[in-house]
Amino acid sequence: MKISGSIDYVRNKVNEWKREGLSVGFVPTMGYLHEGHESLIKKAVEENDKVVVSIFVNPIQFGPKEDLDKYPRDLERDISICSNAGANLIFNPENKEMYFDNFSTFINMNGLTKGLCGKSRPTHFTGVCTVVAKLFNIIPANRAYFGEKDAQQLAVIRRMVRDLNIDIKIVGCPIVREEDGLAKSSRNTYLSLEERNASIILNKSLKECKTALDNGIRDSEILKNIIIENIKKEPLAKIDYVEIVEAESIEAINNIRNSVLVAIAVYFGKTRLIDNFIYEV
Questions:
Q1: What is the pLDDT of residues 64-106, one digit of tens each?
Q2: 142-181: per-residue pLDDT in tens?
Q3: How far is it, in rounded angstroms, from Cα 186 to Cα 266?
């Protein structure tokens, strides 16, 4: 497995593989890999001849008061996970390789980015779209793999690829969870022991909502209140949002008739965790 921080090297290597008739899978990450990332890499290995993993903590998707400097990093461990999962190439660039000093081109999206995480993090998806578009140009893969835990991000990336005619297939992969149901996340490491124990309320609340859906409840406000009342039972939890939206457009709906995304974001101390599920009616 090769590790490179050079755009030219990585682009040339991927194009070389494609000239040889090999399919290429790509897994974009910000590092500090866990079992969720590992599952994406393994899926890419299953479906492609060669797999590239990017490890880059993208500065432009962090707001001014967010955790860029504190974001966890462990490149040695990341390399081991990538190697064991079967990746062929790691792209690990420095900031100066990705962004010129006078960098001034960004990708903005309307609609899908306004609600959910975009409401409390208004610059986040501009940073995500910009870096992912750059990565797709650097790594012209056949398929790119994203986790469904970041459901809004997945919808945004799919829309960007469609709107900009980017020649790549986006593959969504299921959420990987801890034994107690907490969704795997690099930010879980920020939690104190007490906060970590409290965080299981997220999955429990979503399960209560799913049970209500299974029992035929279709009113979004009733369903959201089921989640809210469950989360309120945990004193360490502070709700950022609880929303039910149309799965593809991320638009709020009152009465559920089609596929919906049930999404939540909750603070435990200073740590903001997200979780969700998609329900097919």
A1: 888 799 999 999 999 999 999 999 999 999 999 999 999 999 9
A2: 999 999 999 999 999 999 999 999 999 999 999 999 999 9
A3: 15
- Chain position carrying tokens 């299953």: 46
pTM: 0.96
Active-site pick, 34, 37, 121, 184: 37
124 catalytically annotated: no
